[in-house]
Amino acid sequence: MKLNSAVSAVITGGASGLGLATAQRLAAQGVKVAIFDFNEEAGEAAAKELGGVFCKVDVTNEAQVDAGFAKARAAIGQERILVNCAGTGIAIKTASRDKQTGEIKPFPTDAFDRIIQINLVGTFRCIAKSAAGMMTLEKLEDGERGAIVNTASVAAQDGQIGQAAYSASKAGVVGMTLPIARDLMGDGIRCNTILPGIFNTPLLARAPENVKAALAASVPFPKRLGYPDEFAALAELMITTGYFNGESVRLDGGIRMAPR
């Protein structure tokens, strides 16, 4: 797929971090971008910077997702690109013992379900609705209609202590990538997933410098945190390379996460 002003894209979680970097990279190629995010202030600012449109969307809310796609398509046309970056994490052990009282507590199921709803169901919700829209488009010269890129995590394969919910949600994204690519192959829509390692995003920026330095040192090479634009560059490659389909690719400097 060639990137130019004739192409529109929707980026979920596009107001910051990996999503914003991807929106910036696509917009630099002339692509018209719509940013889905629940952070209205940051989302509006990003859309203004990129000449795109902001849609306030919580990916767990069906009505908001529908309204977001309707607003985006009215403003910039039917998207040929969907990049799913909306997501969050949590750290709770499956069962734990309070160090002071000795009380034993199981992982609260509602907290587990929330992570699944955001990271996995929210991603699939946006894929299904975007793909349905892409199916209305005329095929490009190579028979392609659209491209979808999802965000999983290296935790999908080597989750750490306390990451049962997060790892399950991200493993689910990896697990559905190939079946989705197969579901959509007859309509010329590709689907791929990136598994980022430790990236320098706003979420990590709140961590103390010594913590970030230790994380950087744990990366085999290069010994640093990933740059959001490196994620965006891989997303762009997945979008523009027509033979890239049904793949889940780690982007992590060769790290394999230890238990903690």
Textual characterization of the structure:
The structure is a single chain. With 260 residues, this protein is an alpha/beta fold. It has a single domain (8-251), classed as Rossmann fold (3-Layer(aba) Sandwich), CATH 3.40.50.720. Helix content is 44%, strand content 17%. It is built from 9 helices and 9 strands. Strands 3-2-1-4-7-8-9 form a 7-stranded parallel beta sheet, with helices on both faces. Helix 1 (17-28) links the parallel strand 1 and strand 2. Helix 3 (62-76) runs parallel beside helix 4 (109-134) and helix 4 runs parallel beside helix 6. The longest helix has 26 residues, at 109-134.
Notable characteristics:
single chain; 260 residues; alpha/beta; seven-stranded parallel beta sheet; two-stranded antiparallel ribbon; globular; oxidoreductase activity; Sc_DH/Rdtase_CS
The CATH architecture name reads 3-Layer(aba) Sandwich
- The number of strands is 9
Instruction: Outline the biggest β-sheet.
Output: 7 strands, parallel
Structural class: alpha/beta
With helices defined by DSSP (H or I, 4 residues minimum), what is the helix count?
9
Alpha-carbon distance between the two ends: 41 Å
Element order: H for helix, E for strand:
EHEHEHEEEHEHHEHHHE
**Annotated CATH topology:** Rossmann fold
Shape: globular
Mean pLDDT: 96
* Whole-angstrom Rg: 18 Å
The number of distinct structural domains comes to 1
Question: Could you name the CATH homologous superfamily?
Answer: NAD(P)-binding Rossmann-like Domain
GO molecular function: oxidoreductase activity
Protein name: NAD(P)-dependent dehydrogenase (Short-subunit alcohol dehydrogenase family)
Keywords: Oxidoreductase
InterPro entries: NAD(P)-bd_dom_sf (IPR036291), Sc_DH/Rdtase_CS (IPR020904), SDR_fam (IPR002347)
